Amino acid sequence: MRNSPSSHPPLFAAALFAAASTAHAQSCLWTPRGSPPHGYGQMVYHSGLQRALLVVTGGYDPTVTNIQIWSWDGAAWTLLSDDGPSARSYPGLAYDSDRDRVVLFGGAVAPGGVTGPPELWEWDRAAWTPRAVAGPSGRTGPGMAYDAARHRTVLFGGYIYTQTSWTYLGDTWEWDGQTWSRIATTGPAPRAVPCFAYDSIRARTVLVGGDVFWPTDLWEWDGAAWLQRSTPPPIGTPSWMAFDPQRARMIVGADSRRQTWELDTAAAVWTLRDPGAAPLGPAAFDVARSRAVVLSGGSAPATLEYDGTATIVPPSVIQQPDGLNSTCTPVSFTVQAGGTAVTYRWRRDGQPLTDGGNISGATTDRLSINPVSPPDAGSYDVVLSNVCATVASAPAVLVVAQACYANCDQSTTPPILNVNDFVCFLNHFAAGDSYANCTGDCNPPPCLNVNDFVCFQSAFAAGCCTGP
User: Fold this and answer.
1) What is the CATH number of domain 318-400?
2) Is the CB of residue 53 less than 8 Å from the CB of residue 24?
3) Which of 281, 323, 355, 409 keeps 20 to 30 A from 237, CA to CA?
4) Is the pLDDT of residue 9 over 80?
5) Quick one: pLDDT band at residue 302, thresholds 50, 70, 90?
6) Nearest residue to 85 via CA among 114, 112, 108
7) What pLDDT score was predicted for residue 3?
8) Structure pTM?
9) What is the topology classification, in CATH, of domain 22-314?
10) What is the mean pLDDT of residues 365-373?
């Protein structure tokens, strides 16, 4: 579980996921399941309800005034509570499975993102209850997870913002349901919004990354001390993490490259599972259904499920095609894609292309246009598909410049190249005008010489880029 470190809910690159058949979807690493509830929030797994919960904390969304709780059953979201504490951004959140309580601490509640008071709240399926006990200072973005072996909620770090200063924290606290205990001041460097989850197989709380210059480190808390693992995460700035107890793997996702990695926590070995289709979270692992539930927001909000036993990776765009300019010279658009058994279909202005004429590679990762003429100008993209999903690349624009050096007099009446262009060139040459330096060569001098006449004749013979 982890929120985005941004001061606003993250915006996500638009991707069109389309599930194929139910049989196919069962083999897919990622499967779309519909739209999530409105509002920014965090997720936990509630073992008592056997549901993944989305706790909509509101953050910077003025339409959310009180914290809401939604449950996911694998098919739909159900509102369980909408009368929680006042909305806030980046509180700590965990589920205490022994006492059957959702535990929430801190967050930014004042205008401008100022860190609020050290409020501790618990939800018991019926109501939210404030717990007025001494403990950590108010803070925004702490990591929180429940240590089921030791029956403690573990809290680490966060930051304090006062509109004039930022203070990042590196202390560790535990909540046993009655009392807070400060148990460590050494360990990971101070930070906020780390990826923070509990490894129930090894009884360790795991920390990856966080916000203070985005450290790429891996730590574990065993209840007595923090231990830094020797294998740093290969993922740059992950935005969510969830533990799969059936496979003993920590699932870590969605840096700027939209990658998904798995960590064998016992061996500290990282494995790349998806090179670029991961949503940006938040996330929780649904133990009852053996799926990680991960949300995607932005212009195309979605609920997606991750099946670590699957073998088919949905398509993703790792490197977008670049826009191109051409003066009727051949061009090629390329895309780098990730996924299993991906098919390609290039389009111009939304219309599918086929091989033939000056088009080749319409169903490959490289589209070639040779020769290029003005009608080829337009917006090109490529649609990537497999049995799991379909995604379109960003558009890449081809600009065809109708430059024609040999059309010296810039005439537009056919034939645009005629004897007048030779007369025009001779006049420029006689005047010593730079236009007549067809070869562009001035070394050795003189700049204008017989080679420029030969160059102009060749350009005239080649004709102009006018299209069919």
Assistant:
1) 2.60.40.10
2) no
3) 323
4) no
5) very high
6) 108
7) 45
8) 0.81
9) Neuraminidase (2.120.10)
10) 93
